[in-house]
Write a structure and sequence with these properties.
The complex is a heterodimer of chains A (607) and B (322).
Chain A: H1 2-38, H2 41-50, E1 75-82, H3 99-108, E2 127-131, E3 137-142, H4 156-166, H5 178-181, H6 186-190, E4 200-204, E5 207-211, H7 218-222, H8 230-233, H9 243-247, H10 250-253, E6 262-268, E7 272-277, E8 288-296, H11 301-307, E9 312-315, H12 320-323, E10 329-344, E11 347-350, E12 355-358, H13 367-376, H14 379-387, E13 391-393, H15 417-427, E14 447-451, H16 459-472, E15 476-479, H17 487-495, E16 503-509, H18 517-520, H19 534-543, H20 551-568, E17 571-584, E18 587-588, E19 604-605
Helix pairs in contact in A: 13-15, 19-20
Chain B: H1 2-29, H2 47-56, H3 63-74, E1 81-82, E2 87-88, H4 89-124, H5 129-143, H6 146-160, H7 179-198, H8 202-216, H9 219-226, H10 231-260, H11 263-268, H12 274-283, H13 287-315
The chains are: A alpha+beta (607), B mainly alpha (322).
Chain lengths: 607, 322
């Protein structure tokens, strides 16, 4: 049996490699060569040295389709979920974990509150909110005429139900976070001490009040406004069902309901979903009569799009070159909610105290060393050569997606090996024994152990490129165990502060809350580098303090924080990425701009 | 015979038990678990919640405790809860098994339907151009990797000619339970099925051809010919009866393959089946699912070999198991 699974594993790898090879194919190789030919190497360097935060400028994608025709009456649309695997089908906001499940959810379910371009809640959605003077109480009012797909009105007790599920002692999902815990009485409820959440008060079917322990602007970006149809799925609170039964019930997996623009007619498990128009949608009549959403293999997505079988699809970055010249589609892209980074391990997680403890004697404790390593990485070339420009050098730890909080003035440390060498020289990292590599400040041999993840055809070349970059400034960097590690093995080591690791390459999805304390705070277990500083504590605290409800104040705090991260370099952001989407030219009113989610019901197709 | 089957089934229990123990220990040896790295998307989740999830799924217990709990439930038919899919493993598998078996059965039938006639032709007219053509095809099919061939089939018949759908197992717009839906399923099955079947013929053709050539020269065939039996009958009555025996016996082993599914076909044709689920569960460290799939295919192997023995003894009077 072992042999069998080994063979399956081996075959999977083969499949992957062939897909990737087939996808990027000859085009990419040729394209790469052409670029080399056309450009003067010296010039290239000059450009990257000057390069400011504006490296994204080379590629410019629209955020919305240009077809401005009227949507046709009763149109039908086919949407792809580009995946090499079936979707999981846990179609409830409280329980789902897969990204494809999220895509499905967004067609038939929505939050009660809309969000704007900064992902802050607004009053445009199915409900309105009001904050009290002390910013600790949020009153929410559901508008008239908001109805579940079965015709029942959406009630405040449905939103309460979501909180009862998220905080339930049996809840095993990943959405019980600081913002949910901040509701008064939630910790007691979560521990099973009470059956009531004292901080949530239902005034009537359309009006309710949330009281928070601490006033924090995170409420504005992280407020959970997804209601759960209590009458339909069954009530855990009355013992009608249990969390476990609910998660696996047909009411969530086979015929779930929401109050979004489209209703689910049918699901072929793991494969496709058929929606029909929700005529009672509260914003108005949705443009399309029906939508088919189906899983399409990354190996065939470009052909499917070209053939016109698919109207909307995300395009894997490695297929950009093949899809670029397809003429019946338009390519849209926005910067993804994620960044890749190099983390510098500087301490340990203290499980007892539940906080990060920075070790001043750690190998990576020198700020100059970290700064130099950032300067040494040629991210512009990596983005251009390996991702055809779909990735570009990162500058700051608050990504550009957060328009109001991303600090444009922080320019990051662009490729500059000379500056890196200078920094190391000044800090006392010198090559004393003449072997071509620098020793540390005490003259001891310095070997930095680098952990990186395997997966995809770019993992190896990127790790190699960085190691070469660092060797060029005289730093000896070696791969941990001499190889790349798979996802689980990698995070197992990183999470547990394996002493084998000095630096690692990781990536973070940022979610929609700009607050970085979950990733860089003193008590954040995800702060894998274990970097801490008083100034950092102070700024992160200020960023979510009551004063930070003032946008200008919060902006200023986060600008200071980004400056601090630029200076201290607990991690060096390497690249930001574009998320690429293809839309058939017949698609109208389609936009991927943040804050335009509410226009989903207008998406349509023209003749 | 009944006694034999019964005995084999009895032996199966310790075999499966041992298999489960091995797979359990090995699975736990893999670094990380289902929760590792599962929160890349929501950094605000509290560390206590992460720990709680590990507790709830028993991931912090030593392996023998987990194994004990698993066996206790498994004998009652409960294979545990999938962390990734948030549903009982049994219902998760039930959804995929049907697809996998349909596809594998189709592949099996078509491959036999192609291979047996070709094998017979090649054997009967060995060293003629017919034989050479078939042997050439055979080596081609042996040398061609499935994923290359499947992609090629897909592009030619799916995208260029547009004869067949390019992915999925059924057209969702067609009403459930109708004849049209059945036809749609069949239509979706043709491309992946043919891709799999045309490459699965090698063994059968080769075996059959060689065996027929071999048998042609046997004494009893010469006797039959010299008695004046017509050539056609020599083949149907004497040669084929002998040469098809081992092929029939192999059928049992083929059943084994039915369960495993084909990761290549499933990925390329977006056909949700067990193969993909297996790989997905290994990379996601969804241990309950991994264990369940290994157990099922383990059981299939055991049953399959037993079936082979049974078939063999049923059709060949010379072999009888007491």
């Amino acid at each position: 049996m072992k042999k069998r699974s080994l063979m399956l594993l081996a075959s999977l790898m083969l499949v992957l490699s062939v897909f990737l090879a087939a996808c990027s194919g000859d085009d990419s190789a040729d394209g790469g060569k052409d670029k080399d030919k056309g450009k003067d190497k010296g010039k290239d360097n000059e450009k990257t040295e000057e390069g400011s935060g504006d490296n994204a400028a080379e590629l410019d994608f629209p955020l919305a389709v240009s077809n401005d025709a009227e949507a046709m009456e009763d149109g039908e649309m086919t949407v792809a979920m580009v995946a090499g695997e079936p979707f999981e089908g846990t179609l409830n906001r409280n329980f789902y974990s897969g990204t494809y499940d999220a895509e499905i959810l967004s067609y038939f379910d929505e939050g009660l509150l809309d969000t704007d371009g900064d992902y802050l809640i607004t009053n445009e959605g199915a409900a309105t909110y009001e904050l009290s003077e002390d910013n600790k109480t949020l009153t929410l009012k559901i508008k008239d005429g908001v109805k579940w797909h079965d015709g029942e009105p959406v009630k405040t007790s449905d939103l309460l139900y979501s909180y009862q599920l998220l905080g339930h002692p049996d809840y095993a999902g990943n959405r019980y976070d600081f913002i949910i815990e901040n509701v008064v009485g939630m910790p007691e409820y979560h521990e099973g001490k009470t059956k009531e959440i004292s901080g949530i008060e239902i005034i009537n079917d359309q009006e309710m009040k949330f009281t928070y322990t601490e006033a924090s602007p995170s409420i504005l970006s992280g407020f959970w406004s997804y209601a759960t149809p209590r009458h339909y799925v069954g009530d855990v609170m009355t013992g009608e069902t249990t969390i476990k039964d609910l998660e696996s019930s047909d009411k969530i997996r086979v015929n779930p309901i929401g109050f979004g623009p489209y209703k689910i007619d049918k699901i072929v498990p793991g494969e496709s979903v058929l929606y029909s128009r929700n005529d009672d949608y509260w914003r108005g009549k949705p443009a399309l009569k029906s939508i088919v959403q189906k899983v399409v293999s990354p190996a065939t997505i470009v052909e499917s799009v070209k053939k016109g079988d698919i109207d909307l699809a995300t395009i894997p970055a490695d297929q950009y070159l093949t899809v670029k010249d397809v003429d019946n589609i338009e390519l849209l892209a926005q910067v993804d909610y994620a960044y890749t980074y190099i983390g510098f391990k500087q301490g340990k997680w203290d499980a007892k105290k539940k906080e990060n403890v920075t070790d001043p004697d750690a190998k990576m404790a020198s700020k100059e060393l970290r700064q130099a390593m950032w300067y040494a990485m040629d991210n512009a070339t990596i983005g251009e050569k390996l991702y055809h420009g779909l990735r570009f050098p990162g500058t700051s730890l608050i990504i550009p997606v957060f328009k109001s909080f991303h600090d444009e003035s922080v320019e990051g440390r662009m490729f500059d090996p000379e500056k890196a060498k200078q920094l190391l020289d000044d800090a006392g990292f010198e090559d004393k024994d003449g072997d071509g590599f620098r020793e540390d400040q005490n003259g001891e041999k310095l070997v930095i152990n680098f952990a990186s993840m395997s997966g995809g055809e770019t993992a190896e070349p990127i790790a190699k490129a960085y190691m070469q970059n660092w060797a060029d400034i005289g730093l000896k960097v070696e791969l941990v165990d001499g190889r790349l590690h798979d996802f689980n093995a990698f995070y197992d080591m990183v999470e547990n502060d394996d002493p084998k690791i000095d630096i690692y390459q990781g990536a973070w999805g940022t979610g929609s809350d700009p607050d970085p304390s979950g990733l860089y705070g003193r008590t954040a277990s995800f702060n894998y580098t274990r970097y801490t500083s008083e100034k950092n504590d102070e700024l992160l605290k200020a960023g979510t303090s009551e004063k930070a409800f003032d946008l200008e104040y919060r902006k200023d705090i986060y600008n200071q924080w980004q400056e601090l991260m630029y200076e201290d370099v607990p991690v060096a952001p390497t690249v930001y990425r574009y998320a690429l989407e293809a839309a058939n030219k017949r698609v109208v009113n389609y936009s991927i701009e943040p804050g335009k989610e509410s226009d989903r019901y207008k998406w349509g197709v023209a003749e | 015979m009944v006694k034999f089957i019964f005995r084999r089934l009895l032996v199966m229990i310790p075999q499966l038990f041992l298999l489960s123990l091995i797979i359990f220990v090995l699975a736990k040896q893999m670094p990380g678990d289902a929760v590792t790295g599962a929160f890349m998307g929501n950094p605000n989740v509290t560390p206590e919640q992460v720990e709680k999830i590990r507790e709830q799924y028993g991931l912090n217990d030593p392996w023998y405790v987990q194994y004990g709990a698993w066996v206790g439930k498994a004998v009652k038919g409960d294979l545990g809860q999938s962390y990734t899919h948030k549903q009982p493993v049994t219902s998760l598998l039930a959804g995929r098994v049907a697809n996998t078996i349909t596809l594998s059965l189709f592949v099996l039938i078509v491959s036999y339907a192609v291979a047996i006639p070709l094998g017979i032709l090649a054997g009967r007219w060995s060293d003629t151009w017919v034989d050479k053509l078939i042997v050439t095809y055979n080596y081609f099919s042996f040398a061609t990797p499935l994923f290359v061939f499947a992609l090629l089939m897909l592009f030619v018949f799916g995208f260029i000619l547009g004869w067949f759908p390019t992915g999925g197992s059924v057209d969702i717009r067609i009403e459930s339970g109708t004849f049209a839906q059945f036809m749609s399923k069949l239509h979706h099955l043709v491309l992946p099925g043919l891709s799999g079947a045309l490459l699965a013929t090698f063994g059968t053709i080769q075996y059959l051809r060689n065996d027929i050539i071999d048998t042609k020269l046997k004494d009893f065939v010469k006797t039959a010919r010299s008695k004046g039996v017509p050539e056609g009958k020599v083949y149907t009555r004497h040669i084929l009866r002998n040469s098809l025996l081992p092929i029939a016996a192999f059928l049992g082993y083929e059943i084994t393959g039915l369960i495993g599914g084909s990761i290549f076909l499933e990925v390329i044709f977006s056909y949700p089946g067990l193969g993909q689920l297996f790989i997905q569960s290994i990379t996601g460290r969804d241990f309950t699912v991994v264990t369940a799939i290994v157990m099922i295919s383990g059981a299939a192997v055991i049953v399959g070999t037993m079936l082979s023995d049974v078939i063999l003894s049923a059709i060949d009077p010379r072999i009888r198991i007491e």
